[in-house]
Amino acid sequence: MRQMSVLVLAVLALPAVLSAGEPKMVFEDSFKGKLGEGWTWLRENPKTWRVAEDALEIRVEPGVAHNVKNALVRPAPDRGKARFAIDVTVTFTAPPTNQFEQAGITWYRDGKPAFKLVHEQIDGKQYIIPGKLPAPGKTVELRLVVTAGRYTAQFREDAKGEFKTVASGDLPAGPNEQVSIQCYNGPPDAEHWIRFDDFRIAELPE
User: Fold this and answer.
1) CA distances from 183 to 71, 96, 168, 195, 196 (A)
2) Is the pLDDT confidence value at 169 over 50?
3) What is the pLDDT of residue 53?
4) pLDDT for 132 beyond 60
5) Can you tell me whether residue 191 is helix, strand or coil?
6) How far apart are CA 12 and CA 15, in angstroms?
7) Mean pLDDT of 160-184
8) CA 129 to CA 144: how far, in whole Å?
9) Which of 2, 27, 59, 153 could form a disulfide with 201 if both were Cys (CB 3.0 to 4.6 A apart)?
10) How far is it, in rounded angstroms, from Cα 171 to Cα 179?
11) In this structure, are residues 140 and 128 in contact, taking their beta carbons and an 8 Å threshold?
12) Cα–Cα distance between 43 and 165 in angstroms, integer?
């Protein structure tokens, strides 16, 4: 009987061993009623962002990378110690009309944008940048995988199925690294809102 008990305990312990290769959640925000802890705004306009229906919605205002309104930023994970995936689902609630109207993830280094992974309107069509892979749907899930000096940019349409890799390359480390979700190059005379769902930072297994 004692041997049977030992065997049962060993079997019960198996899931913990098998789950060791799964991603470890570092931070997640489902925007349920409010923003999670640790976020700060760059050039906040309180009138053009809101938390509604368990999502963050930001109006796409005119501007570009260096003067974007309502960029929501937080400290980036220490990619010198591990490999991380940063995910967010992005939805155009109105069809984009402006050239280079876009939304997604931006990587900051010492207060300046260094890299972006976005869903962007170019010449009347929508693409994932970098890579310029066509993405005509209104909803995409973006995933930025970072290591000590590299990035891999991925996405999947409608937040379903397998991720597609669109680009990879060097992303040198620097001081005060931050990650942002933001949108810009919106029309000045129309209200286009971007919906951001399910932001996550996860440490990936080696």
Assistant:
1) 7, 11, 22, 10, 10
2) yes
3) 86
4) yes
5) coil
6) 7
7) 97
8) 12
9) 27
10) 13
11) yes
12) 32
Class of domain 21-204: mainly beta
Domain boundaries, the chain: 21-204
Residue 20: predicted pLDDT = 57
Q: Which two tokens stand for residue 155?
A: 């996405």
Strand 112-122 vs strand 125-129: parallel, antiparallel, or unpaired?
Answer: antiparallel
On the 0-12 / 13-18 / 19+ scale of CB atoms within 10 A, 70 is buried
Of 160, 185, 20, which is closest to residue 92 (Cα–Cα)? 185
DSSP-derived 3-state class of residue 12: helix
Q: What letter would DSSP give residue 138? A: S
pLDDT at 72: 98
Confidence band for 123, pLDDT divided at 50, 70 and 90:
very high
Residue 16: per-residue pLDDT: 38
Tokens matching residue 192? 């286009």
Look over the chain and give the mean of its residue pLDDT values, rounded to a whole number: 91
